[in-house]
Design brief:
single chain, 446 residues, alpha+beta, SH3 type barrels, five-stranded antiparallel beta sheet, 26 strands, 26% strand
Amino acid sequence: MSMRLDHTHDVTARSWLASANDDETPFPLQNLPFGVFRRAGTAEAFRGGVALGDRVIDLSAVIEAGGFSGLAAQAAHACKQPTLNGFFGMGADAWRALRHALFALFKAQDGRERSGPGIDALEQCLVPQADAEYGLPAQIGDYTDFYTSIDHARNIVKLLRPDGTLSPNFQWMPVAYHGRVSSIGVAGQQVRRPYGQRLATGGRIPEVGPCTRLDYELELGIFIGVGNGQGTRIPVSSAEEYVFGLCLLNDWSARDIQAWESVPLGPFLAKNFATTLSPWIVTMDALAPYRAAWTRSSDDPQPLPYLLTPEMSAYGAIDIQLEVALETANHRRNRMPPTRLSRTSFCQQYWTVAQMVAHHTVGGCNLRSGDLLGSGTISGPTREEAGALIELTQAGHSPIRLPTGETRSFLDDGDVVVMTGWCERPGYARIGFGENRGEILPAKWD
């Protein structure tokens, strides 16, 4: 487990960049998440950057300014590419060296002499986030979506199965399916309402048409940093050494299509039309202060030995607070803020990041740098903690009422789903993931 605390977690540390010290910023000096960007409206190549306050640290520019040396310089050079796969593959020592070097460069020095380029030179390496556009941070070779919230699972089976019982394997292993990479996009993605087959209640012959029960799923994306060889497994005790960091993930779902197609092999068209990621990846090092005990009820089956260590029980969970909000066309027309629909925490998941990685590789599957895992929908035990509309509206039977006067059972065209996430704990800085926004466009057959 990544519980290494060091000087980069010091809550008293301040940056000479004023916006990084704002209490409302998701990107203080203690965070330093990585992404890929360029100036909007230009033909610049996408390249690696790091969020700080309301700016993007252009790593290529810091290299030109002479800001790095040693392993940090090697890591920064790997970030000059349009994707971060090469940087990911360098491993935790390189990730940490670059994080520490950036912390030193952008930390206020309290009158002490600064080594490396001065503040004036470093200011030239900053791009306003408002002027940036973002790309996918990695070339994603494979995408695996897990199903790891027992509260979500229980809510779903009560809605969809007469007996309301969980599949027996759920409590023994983190179950998953392989998703579609080609339709993964970055925040701001416009999602076309999909077509597919669906079977009306009581019907015998399916019809083809646009999805009528379009939904979101609140998830975290888990980026693999270092891969493993084919035929080898990653032990749960070291699994997080293979993980670079986490982002927000919206696993859009066409519920009417899903209900008809999922037996016997699981979702297909219901999931392959879009997946949206937030642009910034928060590193496992940055998340270290927000670890929490991972617990399993004594009444439930206990994990098999390959999925459990004492450290897992002590701090295998991560307390990431998550919210979903909805912005309709009427919100925009009336200049109203998005309406919060739910709030929950990742620490309630039945299976952890390390357990997902360990189980994924137990049969010898080789993960590669840049591979993406989805956490599965993140829900808590109460309705207010639902990670999807199908739970929140009881499969559409209890529509939610919005301050605009509208109701929603599922998503309408023009709706924008806004996901946010953050970590906070007394004695440590509040860090965030930024926003993950996606907009629904009308269906189009030709």
